[in-house]
Design brief:
The structure is a single chain. This protein folds into 2 domains: about 230 residues, TIM Barrel (Alpha-Beta Barrel); about 70 residues. About 40% of the residues lie in helices and about 10% in strands. Helix 10 links the parallel strand 6 and strand 7. Helix 5 runs antiparallel to helix 6, helix 5 runs parallel beside helix 7 and helix 9 runs parallel beside helix 10. The structure holds zinc ion. Zinc ion (ZN) binds next to strand 3.
Length: about 325
């Protein structure tokens, strides 16, 4: 009860936006810290149940007009995963909760998300020392499950900050060593995307190829930011209002020119991955988001309460 009163008073004119990704039914031993469906449902029932969940587009408008209810929160998902269909989606519907899904469209009819390709390849790599031709990663061991878990983390760190062309080259080398065909891996479909939209869930852009925008040239920025909006609008037959910056850390992953590109592309708002909550002075193009990671109910609720005190980092914006 005390925590509910505290939440009520701390949340005035503040918008908490929760961020999720893949929500698998079972824990994958290769990535044991990923949120599973039972933990996601536990969070919905014990932490998010303390909030008034609103559609994100509506919440951003209400925040700007000073008409946000207390304990306002939104639920968001990034990337696009086939398992949403049988996991996250029914869990949300059962509780009548709205969510917005930010989609990386390159996987629709193309190859899976880059980090999904890493995981699939590491699972199938032979148990011998390996050289992927990445200078900082010589003589990699895949002998034990712990080695493979560490390798997934290392590869994600190393490949994340490569250009798209260099990342693709490294992925192809990794998949050749593992004997994996990326076309055969599960990924999100256009049918699932249309299904989400037809049910009234929010759909937003999360680029075509999930690059670090700071590493893109001007042409790539337009393609990744405006191009994804056009693709999504033609698939769902509706207006796409929101964008999520890939990796999402202000300054490290995107800069003011990317915020400008998002405005110019016609979006009404954008979300980052910086912790904190939006207040009426927060730019609608830099709404922070947060994922409570604690396993215990009281701890996840404490993390969410503490997040209400985080000030959002804002990159100064160039237009207007
Ligand atoms: Zn992402």
């Amino acid at each position: 009860m005390i925590s509910q009163l505290l939440l009520q008073s701390l949340s005035k004119d503040k918008l908490s936006v929760f961020l999720f990704h893949k929500v698998p039914l079972h824990c994958d031993p290769l990535v044991p810290h990923d949120l599973t469906l039972d933990r996601f449902e536990y969070l919905l029932d014990h932490t998010l149940s303390r909030f008034n969940v609103l559609p994100l587009e509506e919440a951003v408008k209400r925040l700007q007009r000073g008409r946000l209810p207390r304990r306002a929160a939104c639920i968001t998902f990034d990337d696009g995963y086939a398992d949403w269909m049988t996991g996250a989606l029914p869990a949300l519907q059962k509780r009548n909760l709205h969510a917005t899904f930010f989609i990386t469209t390159g996987q629709l009819g193309g190859l899976p998300l880059w980090h999904e390709r890493i995981q699939a390849a590491v699972r199938s790599l032979p148990s011998t020392l390996l050289d992927l031709g990445i200078p900082s990663m010589a003589n990699l061991s895949t002998a034990t499950l712990t080695d493979r878990q560490a390798l997934v983390v290392r590869l994600e760190q190393e490949l994340k900050y490569l250009t798209l062309a260099a990342r693709e080259q490294a992925l192809l080398r990794l998949e050749a060593a593992a004997g994996v065909q990326p076309e055969a891996l599960p990924r999100m479909s256009e049918a699932l995307l249309r299904h989400l939209h037809s049910l009234g869930f929010g759909v937003g852009g999360h680029t075509i190829n999930h690059p670090i925008l700071n590493l893109c040239d001007e042409k790539e920025i337009v393609k990744e930011v405006a191009g994804v909006r056009e693709q999504l609008q033609s698939i769902v037959g509706g207006v796409i209002a929101g964008f999520a910056y890939p990796n999402g850390r202000p300054n490290a992953d995107f800069s003011s020119r990317h915020v400008d590109a998002v405005r110019r592309a016609g979006y009404a708002y954008a979300v980052t991955t910086h912790w904190g909550v939006a207040n009426p002075t927060t730019s609608p193009f830099q709404i922070p988001r947060f994922t409570p990671w604690a396993k215990r109910d009281w701890h996840a609720t404490f993390q969410t309460g503490r997040n209400l005190l985080e000030r959002p980092v804002q990159i100064p914006e160039g237009l207007d």
